[in-house]
Amino acid sequence: MSTQQQQQQDGHIIMFPFMSHGHFTRFIALAKFISRRKPNTKITIVSTPLNVKHLQSTLQTSETNSNIGLAEIPFSSTDHGLPPNSESLDSLPPKLIPTFFYALETLKPSFDNFILETIRTEKLVPSCIIFDLFLGWVTDTAKRVGTFSFCFLDAAYGASMYFSICLHFPHRTNDDSNELIEEFHVPEFPDTCRLHLSQLIPMLRYSNKESAFGKFAQRQISLMLKSDGMLCNSVEEIDVVGLEILRNLMESKRVWTIGPLLPSYLLHGHQNKNNGSVVSHFRKEKEFGISPESCIEWLNHQKPSSVLYISFGSQFTISAPKMMELALGLEKSGKNFIWVLRPPSGFDSKSEFKSEWLPEGFVERMNETKKGLLVKKWAPQLEILCHRSTGVFLSHCGWNSVLESLSQGVPIIGWPLFAEQHYNSKMIQEEMGVCMELARGDEGELCSEDVKKVIEQVMDGSIGQDMKNKATVIAEKIGTAMREYTDEAGIRRELISAKCNVWIKVITTT
Fold first, then answer.
1. pLDDT tens-digit profile of 231-268?
2. pLDDT of 169-222, one tens digit each?
3. pTM of the predicted structure, to 2 decimals
4. What residues does 436 pair with on adjacent strands?
5. Contact 68, 102 (CB under 8 A)
6. Which CATH number is correct for 11-157+227-262+487-508, 3.40.50.2000, 3.30.230.70, 3.90.1150.10, 3.30.470.20?
7. Burial (CB count <10 Å: 0-12, 13-18, 19+), residue 441
């Protein structure tokens, strides 16, 4: 059988990620995960031109199989009232995010044309389409051409909480009133599960069933729930509550945990905390503010579990006043730290970081005392979390970062900023006991004494030791899941025994 015939025999998977860095990262990880098990299955990641250009660069600098390809569909941001070349959520200010969401629905005709042209050219219907949050209309495309559709999510807990809030809007007295309930129960969840308004982003907080975003969210969720199944980048043993609720929402449809989609060396890092001998090339495309080697060298001189790592992800950041208080609190705590610095919210995220955003003389004092390593733009996060000297992660609680941290048994100080980060923070604090929340976005006041107190509790106190112990147990569970899905016999046993024959045929090693 020729290579081309074999590829046709093994099928074609179409992937359509939401247009944002974190979403691209996990879709690429999933593509590589499938590629390693089904090297003769064609995989195509679809996006808009500028994103395809970025993804091409990423794939070229990463070790990957040749069966992963890219395809672009047209998108003009200015047609939707967005700035020129705004093809990713990462490049937009918060006020334009709803506009970006609504614009994504206009991609449907182009995506439909791409699928139809693919079928015409290959004379074969794709094996399945794997799509992302906010792209629920893909289910209609899949049904029309006679293939399967699967929605790819992060934690089931965060997804099911978002679904429930948008389907019920439980924080409002009714649709005709502007009254908001400050603390409320989330339908579908246990009676003890309550949310505060500060855990809802403004876009959702001020929406109801009749608002533009409310209608958009309910429309997309209803379509996602019609998919043939949901794939969660999570682990069955740590996402118990969320999975139960998501499975109830999906009724007879299947929900699979296929995570954690992490580099395999993270497992070895937890089993044998290294001194930086493993330096990954997982994110070669990033312009690091410090070389991984220099960062590891600094960590090698610190005591075990003595370093606080601080990063708020690739998309959002904290305000200038809170950045000032965080710096003062760090200095008061006396702890060693690595802090990834980006301009405060309200400033151009691509501009140079200015020392005036930090306390006077702070940078000079850190350089002199070597207590803090200040890194601009990007830091080698995976290597930092693998290192024995890293004790705690002050994080925005994006799911990728949560998995990376917990896979190493590193507890978290939570500072969620946007979207499901608030739900992730709630989950790992209340359900897992491995997080203590310091702040929420720009809500409320924060002083340096608050920062100092929380850091000391997590890094020195009995509360912190309990968090560390629980994080270590979770790391073992994540490690077990990673061993299961990297085993030559196939991926997780639940997935192998599932009834979705097409998904098993495409994904598992036969």
1. 999 999 999 999 999 999 998 788 988 888 887 666 55
2. 999 987 666 789 999 999 999 999 999 999 999 889 999 999 999 999 999 999
3. 0.89
4. 413
5. no
6. 3.40.50.2000
7. buried
Active-site positions read 23, 132
* Long-range Cβ contact pairs of 77-81 (< 8 A, separation 24 or more): 77/103, 79/103, 79/106, 80/106
For the chain, the structural domain boundaries read: 11-157+227-262+487-508, 264-481
Instruction: Name the amino acid, one letter, at 407.
Output: S
DSSP state of 387: B
Within 8 A by CB and 6+ apart from 127, the residues are 11, 12, 13, 41, 147, 148, 502, 505, 506
Q: Do the beta carbons of residue 154 and residue 233 sit within 8 Å?
A: yes
User: Which CATH number applies to 264-481: 3.30.420.40, 3.30.70.920, 3.20.20.70, 3.40.50.2000?
Assistant: 3.40.50.2000
β-bridge partners, 378: 288
pLDDT (0 to 100) of residue 238:
93
Quick one: 271 exposed, middle or buried, by C-beta within 10 A (0-12, 13-18, 19+)? Answer: exposed
CB 125 within 8 A of CB 148: no
Asked if 262 and 403 touch (Cβ cutoff 8 Å), the reply is yes
> Tokens at residue 141, please?
């495309």
> CA-CA distance, 133 to 151, in Å (whole number)?
7
For residue 350, the tally of other CB atoms under 10 A from its CB is: 9
